[in-house]
Amino acid sequence: MNTKFIFTLSIVILSIILTAFAHEVSFKKRSPELLKRTDYEKNDTCPCTVATSTFNSTVIGEVVFAQDTCGSTLVTGLFSDGLVNPEKNCYTFLVVNKCGKLLYNLTSVLDVKFRKNGTFPFSTRLDDLNLNCDSNGVLLAESGKKRYIKRDTGADLQIQQNGQNYASAPLSSV
Ligand SMILES: *[C@@H]1O[C@H](CO)[C@@H](O)[C@H](O)[C@H]1NC(C)=O
Ligand SMILES: *[C@@H]1O[C@H](CO)[C@@H](O)[C@H](O)[C@H]1NC(C)=O
Ligand SMILES: *[C@@H]1O[C@H](CO)[C@@H](O)[C@H](O)[C@H]1NC(C)=O
Ligand SMILES: CC(=O)N[C@H]1CO[C@H](CO)[C@@H](O)[C@@H]1O
Fold first, then answer.
1. What span, in angstroms and rounded, lies between the C-alpha atoms of 161 and 78?
2. Virtual CA dihedral for 111, 113, 119, 120, nearest 10 degrees?
3. To bridge 159 with a disulfide, which of 31, 41, 84, 167 should be the other Cys (CB 3.0-4.6 Å)?
4. Residues contacting ligand 3 via CB (< 6 Å)
5. Residue 101 burial by Cβ neighbours in a 10 Å radius (0-12, 13-18, 19+)
6. Which stretch is the leader sequence (predicted)?
């Protein structure tokens, strides 16, 4: 082999190594960013998680939360009874953590249409609500950070009547 060939060969090998190294570096730099909203909107990186909230006492009904791979969540359901006199009473629908802190106010986005003491079926897709895709995921919400109180993870769907807690059911993943 002549020296010219060996020289060319080493240049080629060197550039291959450098390219691989550059990829490695840019991948490592990106990694912590992967869970940011801007990233998972472009990439299919969220688990397909489904959770339900079942109301079977004061209020009768069920709401299903289905997260897609982009971190958007379909919220669909129906209440059949217990939302007494919706013409006179104001009902709001809130996703809260286990200490009752508001995580997402669903009232205006659901815009439920009442029927008797319940609602017609409702369905909406929310790009700004996720279940467990990133640190804002409501199923990952933590509460009870005070000493002596056990940390509790997760969220409840809370129905308020005229600003007072009226009924509540956990979002349970299925
Ligand atoms: C509501 O459903 C849960 C789970 O199926 C059950 O444990 C509970 O007893 C039910 N409550 C009423 C009031 O029916
Ligand atoms: C939730 O939204 C409804 C409708 O916009 C509003 O009337 C209500 O006060 C809100 N509740 C909370 C706790 O923010
Ligand atoms: C709504 O609920 C109230 C209280 O349970 C009941 O008196 C009323 O008849 C119900 N209305 C309808 C339309 O079912
Ligand atoms: C992990 C992954 O698929 N990352 C991609 C997310 O989307 C951006 C922009 O489309 C790509 O550059 C990343 O490689």
1. 17
2. -110
3. 167
4. 84, 116-117
5. exposed
6. 1-22
For residue 90, the ligand closest to its alpha carbon is 2
* Contact yes or no for 58/166 (Cβ under 8 A): yes
CA dihedral 101, 37, 140, 161 (to 10 degrees): 30
The tokens describing 131, both together, are 């279940």
pTM recorded for the entire structure = 0.73
Closest Cα to atom 10 of ligand 4: 42
Kindly give the confidence (pLDDT) of every residue in the chain, 174 residues in length, as a single tens digit, with 9 standing for 90 and above.
566 766 676 766 666 555 665 555 444 444 444 455 554 455 678 999 999 999 999 999 999 999 999 999 999 999 999 999 999 999 999 999 999 999 999 999 999 999 999 999 999 999 999 999 999 999 999 987 666 666 789 999 999 999 999 999 999 999
Q: How far is the CA of 24 from the centre of ligand 3 (A)?
A: 65
Q: In 3-state terms, what secondary structure has residue 138? A: helix
Q: Taking phi first (over 0 means left), then psi (-120 to 50 degrees means alpha), and beta for anything else, what does residue 146 get?
A: beta
Residue with tokens 């956990």: 170
Q: What is the token pair recorded at 97?
A: 């953590």
What contacts 24+ positions apart, CB below 8 Å, involve 8-15? none
